[in-house]
Amino acid sequence: MPLEILDALSDFVGELSLTNWLLYFWPFFLIDFLRYTILDGTVLLHWIRWKGLGRGKVEAARERMFRERPLVSIIAPGKNEGAHLPALARSLQKQTYRRFELIVIDDGSDDATSAICRRLLEQGKIDDYIRHRVRGGKASAANTGLRRARGRYVVHLDADTELDPRALEQVILPFYLEEDVGAVGGDIRVANQSASLATRLQAIEYLKTITVARTVASQLGIMRIVSGAFGAFPRQTLERLKGWDVGPGLDGDITLKIRKLGLKIRHAPDAIAYTNVPVRFKALSRQRYRWYRSMVRFRMRKHRDLLNPVANFRTTDFISSLDNIFFNFVMNLKWWVYAIQLLAFVPRPVWPYLLVINWALYVGANVIQWGLVWAGVGTSLNRRVAALTLYVPIMPIYVGVYLRVIRSYSQLMEIFTRSSYRDPWNPWRVSRAAQRAGM
Amino acid sequence: MNPGLYAADIVPLRSEIDATEPLGAIMAPAPEGVRSAACFVLVPGEDPEDALGLLGQIRRHPDPAIYLKPVLLVRRGAEPLPEALTYGVDAIWDRDAEPARPGHDVEAELRAIGQRAGQLSPVHSGGDLDPTVRVLRFLAVRGGTFAPRQTVLHPAGWTYDRLEPLADSADGDVARLLMLLAERQLLEGEFVARTHSCSSCNCAFLNFQETCPRCTSADLLVQDWVHHFRCAYTGPMSDFEYEGRLVCPKCEHLLRHLGTDYDKPAIVYQCRECENEFHEADVVSACYQCGHSAPPDMQGERYYRRYTVTALGRNLAIYGVDETVGRVLSRSGRVLPFDSFRTLVAGEAARHERYRTEPGSALVLVNLVGLQGAYLELGERTGELLEQLLETVVSIMRTSDYIATPNNSLFAIVLTETGVDAAETAVERLEGGIAELLQGSLSDPPNVTFAIESITKDLDLDGTLDRMLGRHAA
Q1: Alpha-carbon gap: A209 to the closest alpha carbon of chain B (Å)
Q2: In a domain, B206, yes or no
Q3: Model confidence pLDDT, tens digit, residues B220-232
Q4: Distance from CA of A5 to the nearest CA of B (A)
Q5: Are strands B149-150 and B158-159 parallel, antiparallel or unpaired?
């Protein structure tokens, strides 16, 4: 029986003309494969070559940095994050770049965070601890941290993040490699990848969408987000912007604001930070629901001026926003168009063949992309990451079905109900004020 | 009451206690009038300073017949008296209100105290020199509960008025002595207050002030830290102040309503000396009395409790703690320190609980009721009698048994691997041996009582001792 199915599939594929391939699989060939495999692959290979040739330049920048030894202020805002802080402090003590101050901003914690922070303060593992008696949201806590920062550079960290020993050095280095860098994103990887299927899939996703995709976007000058979990900024730039605005999505928002200042955004794939991701699909769904809404709220509403070809137009800003909106919003809709096409114009018996072939095509693309990950940053990966290869064939379902459904739902909810303002991620009084202001 | 007898009770103390004598150093000559005739002392209150001086002399006198004597302050007129005098005496007789004599109840109470005090002998040939003994005896003779009183006139902020004159400054403060007695389970305390006091001089009047962590200056500007909801800007209130209104420096919007537009999640300090801005100031406490300055957690902490004397405490107050006897007992290798004994009993109980060994172990308590007579008859040689008594007990015990002396009139013995029935046999032998010794040594031997308890996990050793002493306390 399986062999008969295979024969039928083989016959179906053999009968497909070039036109049929394009008609049946246009989302893959015309969009996804071109954008995420061909373009990313080309740019990444170019970057790998540049990395090899530019070693001397990097070394010179590194020498200059260690000669100047600028103070780096690490700010870690959060509520009830005390339990993570000792590990963060330990990972900071192992840094190759040592001139930093750690500022913890307790955003109205109601657990033992305060006691833990005071103990770490006494032990000299935290340099500054500020407590907001009531929760004001992450942006206000980060802004209080910014106010306390004394360093030339400010690193924003999630408190549950642990840094690779070279992370701090690597995230500051781009400021010495180029002029006018306004933000550098660290490379976020999954700390708890072995916890569940969900974490394994996220581990692959992070390596593809952060490590590779952001390196590519950085090379193309269209990087649109510096992750809140680990990002570095010149303090002057943040002070010029008077800090972060109300979230959720404050990391993407500040990145766009920095772009508007005409500054460059860079990704540092060797500045590695490990973070814990949701273990269960339910928690992951909630997290992504929050993330995907911010695309509508910030890109399409708050920063729609980036698409205006008249006012303060910059091509890279325009492409950056267009790339994001097109591939994350418009192209998200393509699947629904594709689904309608299948239902309306393709005979029902053909559907299973199309599904299987689509899956095989996307598995192939994922394998190539996984190869790009190893080609790009393979030296920083270990056997545990290699073992994730077994899960690559599931990625088309994870990204193409699971995340796509959440993304579509999130965006529709945000467009029609502005649901992000009701997200408990911010205190209600803050969300209400932000909504009134259209922020 | 016979008015004549009453008149005789008014003892001219001033003439009998020499104020120039270094009190407490040696036993003052026994003032006959006080010891035999007076049950309490009348102190005239016309000159409060004189009265206070006299009260101090009485309370610091080493002879229990004097320092334990109730003091009745006689006053006329409405002039306020010093607190130390008002609360330091046992009672006040307002002669304007009661010209003839104080109230009958007051007089009866004072006489009862006086009589109880008169029965006690000094525990030391030079008098009661140990302030702990003096305080315990004072409490036991008066009975009831002694509560502290809050006052700004005492450097500690709280005072045990009637006890204060008992200890001079060299003895340390009364609160510490009381805590010491409570730790030994001679007093039972009920929480009243906890204070912070200077670690140098015990003064409770401390000035807490915030200082700059960088330069230690106390010249600080304290401001609210403001969070503007609309744009998430945070900063000190001064960032927002503009022409008498609050305007956000980031988004330039007006902040109208606290809670709707903005809140104040923290406070911020700005040092006027070094311009440092910080959210958590160092806190330093400085003593108003001696000027000693330290972080609050490095200052002293003191608990004030209202105290009552336990049965064990009453027992010790009456019979005293003779250091010589203590040394005799501790010389014997068979006598365990009481803390070790307590551990041993707990261990026996646990062993029995775990292994269910039969017949288990037994606790025997031997209490000598009225040992005061032995002190009166033999004086310091009571120690020799106790040594013989101990030898008698030890000779009857097996080498596997243990003994401790919670106080000088009480012996506690653990009979290992001995059930209650077998313990009764041992007690009969002890009873015979002790009776023979005491009857041969004293004209009026104390009564000896015994108690036997099986050592189980439910045994409350302290409670058992307390009950034993309470049942037979004088």
Answers
A1: 29
A2: no
A3: 999 999 999 989 9
A4: 60
A5: antiparallel
